[in-house]
Design a protein that fits this description.
Chain lengths: 108, 111
C-alpha cells in the first residue's frame, strides 16, 4: 500500500520562528489533508489540498502531486501551535492513510 | 449539527464487556468514517459509510467490531467482548466533499 513519510519527526521552536513540515508519499494520490492534533487530543482540519497552494493566516500549504510531496509552512509560530501535525493521503474517494506525524513544541 | 459529535468522550470498561460508541455527523454529510488511533500513532481506517450503506469495513480488526448507520445519519461502533488491546482513541469523521471533519473522539480504556 501507499507509504506516507513525514519529516522532521520532532521539532522544537522558539516562539516567533518559522518552520516547514514535509510529507512525502509513495504513489499518486487524489486527496490530501493536513491536520493538527492539539494537546487536548482534538484533530483539527488545517487544509484540504490535493494540489496547489493555500494560505490561512500564518499557515500555508503546497502540494506538488506530480512529485509526490506536500509542505506545510508555519510562520511566526505561537505556543498554541504546539501539538502533532499529520498529513493524510487518499488514492480513492474516501479512505485516508495517515503519516506518523511531526511533533512540534513551541517555547515561549 | 455544527460539528461532528461523539459520545461518550471517555469510556472505561472491564475486559469482556460490550461497548457502543456513538457518532453524530455534520448535518447533510453523506459520508461517515471511523478511525482508531493508538497512542503516539496516526489514525487508522476502520470503516466507511455512504448514507446508510457500509461501503468498506476492511479496517475492522476482527468480528468483535461492527458498525451501523441505519438512517444515514447517526452511527454506532460496537465492540463486543472487549480486550485490553482495544484500548485506544476512536475517532469519527464526516465529509460532504472536500475533506474530513473529525469529532473529538472517544477515549476507550479496557481494564
Amino acid at each position: 500500500g501507499i507509504q506516507v513519510e513525514q519529516s522532521p519527526p520532532d521539532l522544537i521552536l522558539q516562539e516567533g520562528a518559522n518552520s516547514t513540515l514535509r510529507c512525502n508519499f509513495s504513489d499518486s494520490v487524489n486527496n490530501l489533508q493536513w491536520f493538527h492534533q492539539n494537546p487536548w487530543g482534538q484533530l483539527i482540519n488545517l487544509f484540504y489540498i490535493p494540489s496547489g497552494t493555500k494560505q490561512n493566516g500564518r499557515l500555508s500549504a503546497t502540494t506538488v502531486a506530480t512529485e509526490r510531496y506536500s509542505l506545510l509552512y508555519i510562520s511566526s509560530s505561537q505556543t498554541t501551535d504546539s501539538g502533532v501535525y499529520f498529513c493524510a493521503v487518499g488514492t480513492g474517494t474516501y479512505k485516508y492513510i495517515f503519516g506518523t506525524g511531526t511533533r512540534l513544541k513551541v517555547l515561549a | 449539527g455544527a460539528g461532528v459529535s461523539q459520545s461518550p468522550r471517555y469510556k472505561v470498561t472491564k475486559r469482556g464487556q460490550d461497548v457502543a460508541l456513538r457518532c453524530d455527523p455534520i448535518s447533510g454529510h453523506v459520508s461517515l468514517y471511523w478511525y482508531r488511533q493508538a497512542l503516539g500513532q496516526g489514525p487508522e481506517f476502520l470503516t466507511y459509510f455512504n448514507y446508510e450503506a457500509q461501503q468498506d469495513k476492511s479496517g475492522l480488526p476482527n468480528d468483535r467490531f461492527s458498525a451501523e448507520r441505519p438512517e444515514g445519519s447517526i452511527s454506532t461502533l460496537t465492540i463486543q467482548r472487549t480486550e485490553q488491546r482495544d484500548s485506544a482513541m476512536y475517532r469519527c469523521a464526516s465529509s460532504g466533499g472536500g475533506g474530513y471533519t473529525f469529532g473529538s473522539g472517544t477515549r476507550l480504556t479496557v481494564v
